[in-house]
Design brief:
The longest helix is centred in the N-terminal third of the chain and has 20 residues. The protein has 261 residues and is α/β, with parallel strands linked by helices. It is globular, with a radius of gyration of 18 Å. The protein has one domain: Alpha-Beta Barrel (TIM Barrel), CATH 3.20.20. The chain is built from 9 helices and 10 strands. α5 links the parallel β4 and β5. Helix content is 38%, strand content 15%. Bound molecules: zinc ion (ZN). The site of zinc ion has 6 residues, from loops.
Length: 261
């Protein structure tokens, strides 16, 4: 683990301890994964078993009451890699953990050509249209991850609109139902992009900054916490308990102290 990760984990442990004393209102923590490699099957299975044992598992767009005694967790995957179907789906089915998969519709059945978020994802292949349509509907919900996986904030209004509307239309015809959630590629967004997503008919959009979501939170945008099958049980338990919710505060503080050029 890098020094930076160790520091983050140490802060998370302190935060977790303080939160147990403070007992804040129940919150929802949304986890997001990318790939699950063949050698990570068992580790991922153990994480899903831990969720089933210790958490109340809901959908990421859940707006009803939250459990006060257990962590409330939603599981999501960005990029719709085939490895998720092959190495994560068996564990989701075994433990009956529902999950949402965000699909970049311009890359169906192909190796991703966008700039990778995590270094190990270069050998991945995005699921084909047939593979996505065949996912178990009782367990897997599909959301948009745009068409091309661009940095949305760098696009014109018209191009943003095209990414949001076209991906939604492709997935709706593929799944035969309403698609109204979206995960921003790279978490990249600003107010303009969030507003465009609302106009394009998305009910919820997901970022990559950890956030404690309280029951009935009306905001269209929801934060998520990065999870990885490689997370050891201690780190995964911290993530499950929302112990990384301090991170956005740290980023804001850093931005205030060190203005960007
Ligand atoms: Zn992505």
């Amino acid at each position: 683990m890098s020094l930076k990760s160790q520091l983050k984990t140490a802060i998370a442990m302190g935060w977790d301890r303080a939160e147990r004393v403070r007992r804040p209102p129940p919150k929802l923590t949304i986890l997001y994964y990318h790939a699950v490699r063949p050698d990570q099957r068992d580790a991922f299975n153990a994480q899903m078993a831990a969720l089933k044992r210790e958490a109340n598992i809901v959908a990421p767009d859940h707006s009803g009451p939250l459990d006060a005694d257990r962590p409330n967790i939603a599981v999501t995957f960005d990029d719709a890699f085939r490895s998720v179907r092959e190495h994560a789906l068996p564990a989701l089915e075994q433990h009956r953990v529902p999950a949402t998969i965000f699909v970049p519709t311009g890359w169906l059945g192909r190796s991703p050509g966008w700039r990778m978020e995590t270094s190990g994802d270069h050998e991945e292949i995005v699921m084909s249209a047939e593979e996505i349509a065949a996912l178990p509907r009782d367990l897997i919900t599909i959301g948009s991850h745009t068409v091309d996986h661009p940095f949305l904030t760098k696009l014109s209004d018209a191009a943003v609109q095209a990414q949001l509307v076209q991906s939604r239309a492709t997935l709706e015809s593929l799944m035969g139902g309403v698609i109204d959630t979206l995960a921003f590629p790279y978490g990249n967004h600003d107010d303009r992009v969030v507003e465009a997503a609302g106009k394009a008919g998305y009910r919820h959009v997901y970022t990559v900054a950890p956030q404690a979501i309280v029951a009935g939170d009306p905001a269209i945008s929801r934060g998520r916490t990065s999870a990885d099958p490689a997370d050891n049980p201690t780190l995964f338990a911290l993530k499950m308990r929302g112990a990384f919710d301090w991170m956005p505060y740290a980023s804001k503080l850093k931005a205030a102290i060190i203005p960007r050029s």
